[in-house]
Amino acid sequence: MFSLHKIPLGIYEKALPNAFSWKEKMLAAKAAGFDFIEISVDESDERLARLDWDQKTIREMRELMDETGITFPSMCLSGHRRFPFGSKNPETRKKAYEIMEKGILLAQKLGVTCIQLATYDVYYEESDEETKALFLQGMKDSVDMAAKAGIILAMEIMDTPFVGTILRATHYLREIPSPYFKIYPDMGNLTQFSADPENEFELGFPDITAIHVKETKPGVFKCVPFGTGTVRFADLFKKLHDLGYAGRFMVEMWADNTKPCTMEEAVADLRAAKEFVVDKMRQGGYTV
């Protein structure tokens, strides 16, 4: 059962094998000791189709949450990498708005309180002043929609220089001052783009809604095993603890979908990651 007296620690959906059913994913996360799953709506057709889940599917998902105790308090809505607000193609921008509106409505139905945004003006196109202006307008319109639904939109501190630091995110926070527009720092990404991530956390602290715990190394932002990269986890947890951060942490890692995986193997991988993170949190002063 969820407790208001402990730091919530979740796991990214993509850390669980694609072949698992939703019930298997939830049970594996629970068996490994996680409190929640961050659901993914990425740029693939398969996951974008989740935006059109019917009421029967929504009801089944809510029933699984009740049965397992694993919920979806946050959504990684990275479909905008393929359909960005900053695109010069009006049809692409139209799709970006459609994804945003459907994402907010799906979040309401699933009980998601925070949608993590992929903060790219464009990804597969060249960035310039026009794409940046279009992106800013897209953010303004998105926050307006999200506010009406009571859903927080949080810019992820990304794996590209565009918004690779909290300092770069503050430009958008100033342009769109809203209680429904916040930031979602990623320890791994921030480490690669900032020489002083502790100072970055202090700079953006009032606007942090959740934090990704991910390992990275120079030039490599995905699938870096914990303990093999350059992220100073204990130092970063200490800074957050000293600042008084008591919100959600979400462990970001990826399952190896190139080979079959049993429930026992999946739980073992998740548990090992959790033990690594919890150890670093304790070194930073957290009681976990």
From TrEMBL:
Q: Does the keyword Isomerase apply?
A: yes
Give an example GO biological process: L-ascorbic acid metabolic process
In what residue span(s) does the Xylose isomerase-like TIM barrel domain sit? 28-268
Identify the Pfam families for this entry: AP_endonuc_2
Q: Which UniProt keywords apply?
A: Isomerase
Q: Which GO terms describe its molecular function?
A: intramolecular oxidoreductase activity, interconverting aldoses and ketoses; L-ribulose-5-phosphate 3-epimerase activity
Q: What is this protein called?
A: L-ribulose-5-phosphate 3-epimerase
> Which species does the entry assign this protein to?
Fusibacillus kribbianus
Instruction: State the taxonomy lineage.
Output: Bacteria, Bacillati, Bacillota, Clostridia, Lachnospirales
